[in-house]
Amino acid sequence: MSRPFNADRCINCGACMRACPVVQEETVGRFDGPRSLAVDSSRFSHEVNSLRDNIFACSMCWKCADVCPSRIEMPRAILRARADIFDRNAALPGHTKMMQNIDVDGLSVRRELDPLSLGVEKASVLYFPGCIAGQKFRNIADGAVRTLLQNSTVRIPSGRVCCGSPLEKAGDKVRMEALRKRNLKLFEGRSQIVTSCPGCTSHINDHYGVEALHIVEYLVESVGLAKLKFRNHGVVRVTLHEPCHLKRTVGPHAIDYCYDILHSMPGIRVLEMPEPDRCCGGGGGLLSGYPDIAMDLAKTKIEDAKTSGADVVLAPCPFCVLNLKQAGGMDVMDLIEFVSFRF
After folding, report:
1. Residues of 18-37 as b/e, b for ≥16 C-beta within 10 angstroms?
2. Which positions ≥6 away from 333 have C-beta within 8 Å?
3. What is the spatial distance between Cα 240 and Cα 39, in angstroms, rounded to a whole number?
4. Considering the chain, what is the average pLDDT of its residues?
5. Which superfamily does 7-85 belong to?
């Protein structure tokens, strides 16, 4: 549950600034940091439009709220500020392109593939693949479906659109609400909504009035690890990237579930990288708004992953997979795509 925002609770400890991955990475002063954007501006009544230059450089990793001793939810304040200054004519080029894609196809990325659908009318699970798994990396969605079909009947509704999370990060609440209404019609009467993208999971839970589970939550809580029967395909050394939205908006239990699944698989050696929950830059609208900063964060993450000695870095988030793959230098897979080939 979110708390009322109160900048006066800030004790100027600097914890949020030290923890911010963009502040750490961008040493040339391109980003003022969470306290300046969320706390100082509200205290001193700066014109919110003056924040436009760098407020979209926040990756929405929620690390600042995680470390704040006063429990100030600065990301929510930054989101509100983004909505306050929203002007499509002044939007960043990547955000403008995303909005154009939504106006044309209802998706945050260009529609290049036929919509994925699976028509089991009375299925126990409604699977919502999201934009990246549905279009950019269909193998992620295919892996999720293969995994779900081991113990469930699955329906993938036709006519679905973006959940709206990328629009919220860009400040466009009008289009966000329009997408929500379209998707809610498809969700009616469905007992369980399962997603691959933790951004979709938390956005649906926050804005739709229905419950969604990330697929790792569904596998552990609804199916149960004892029912997941894996085959031994030989030793593979993996390291897990802990996505910000999965750990800090869905919940840290979801990360525990990822490790539980991996440790239950024969032949899998799990090696830990330094700071496994360090932001890779794939979320919060950063990848589309400031792709150069997102790439800096992804390259740092890949270097961390290499030090683990793993063969592959696994990321239970399509946006993280997208950004880490673009950084190159190491094999990257979605966690559930990896899991799906080992039943």
Report:
1. ebbbbbbbbeeeebbbbbbb
2. 312, 313, 314, 315, 321
3. 33
4. 91
5. Alpha-helical ferredoxin (1.10.1060.10)
Please choose, from the candidates 242, 245, 222, the residue with its C-alpha nearest in 3D space to the C-alpha of residue 148: 222
- Whether pTM > 0.85 for this model: the answer is yes
| Per-residue model confidence (pLDDT) at position 42 | 59
- The yes or no reply on domain 125-223 and CATH 3.40.50 is yes
Tell the CATH topology of 229-340.
Rossmann fold (3.40.50)
Is 238:338 a contact under the CB 8 Å cutoff? yes
Helix (H) or strand (E) holding 263: helix 252-263
What is residue 38's predicted lDDT score, i.e. its pLDDT?
Answer: 84
**Ramachandran region of residue 64, left (φ > 0), alpha (ψ -120 to 50) or beta?**
alpha
CA–CA separation, 286 and 58 (whole Å) = 7
First vs last C-alpha separation in the chain: 37
Asked if the domains 125-223 and 229-340 are classified in one and the same CATH topology, the answer is yes
